[in-house]
Amino acid sequence: MEDNFRKPVRGTAEWAVATVDCGIGCPHGCRYCYARAKLVDRLGLVAPAAWSTFRIDEEAVRRKHPLYPGQVMFPAHHDIVPENLAACCAVLSSLLAAGNRVLVVSKPHPDCIETLCRELWRFREQLLFRFTITARDERILHLWEPRAPGYDERRAALAQAFGHGFATSVSVEPMLDGGDVVAMVQDLLPLVSHSIWIGKMNRVGERVSCDSPAMAREIARIERQQDDARIREIYRQLGDLPIIRWKESIKTVLGLAPAAAPGLDV
Ligand code: SF4
């Protein structure tokens, strides 16, 4: 196929050639949750009231995984939480034992990460942790990600993984506090060995329910802090750091070339 007709590489495809999950539902309650929008609102696979409880897919846990032709992301449509830690650990062991390079993406609970570091130690050369850390301000985090770990817990989990010698990375997507993102990156830099990805909140109007005047003000703030002028200013301040990577939503604003193929993670 001609290059001009290739589908743009965006979302999880920027990071992985395949995604793996082991159940459905997530207790973290993020207001912008793309997984909920897809699995509940679009596909109707689970009732809205049931989304906040993780339900294990036993068959997915037992599945033997092939060697994928590139980096695999786990999980993609739920998170790793105390309730599903054993199942997540089993799936990760299976993926890694098949020889895969695995990207673990999470709003991390330190206890879960400590267990994964211990259980997956022998696979550490194949594993990259990427923790989603969207803001430092607890008021903002509580509003947007009400039941996910706070900033200090996520930073502590990052320090644990880094300290145990695993490759570490951060995803600031969606960027929830554009005014603080440069300072937050500086705070996290010493704990990151691989990359810090920065991306906008996509499809805000479609995915985020605006159910109060306070929420309307928050949505307006997010949109203001990720307008083209602010994105260019963030790029001006961070663009020289080789560890920073820009998601497709930001590359488009800056006129940077999109990823050439899925799963390159660059
Ligand atoms: S942690 Fe991920 S899957 Fe869970 S609610 Fe938040 S965005 Fe959705």
From TrEMBL:
Keyword Lyase: yes
Keywords from the named record: Iron, Iron-sulfur, Lyase, Metal-binding
Superkingdom: Bacteria
Keyword Iron-sulfur set for record: yes
GO MF annotations in UniProt: iron-sulfur cluster binding; lyase activity; metal ion binding
Protein's UniProt name: DNA repair photolyase
Organism this protein belongs to: Desulfoprunum benzoelyticum
Lineage: Bacteria, Pseudomonadati, Thermodesulfobacteriota, Desulfobulbia, Desulfobulbales
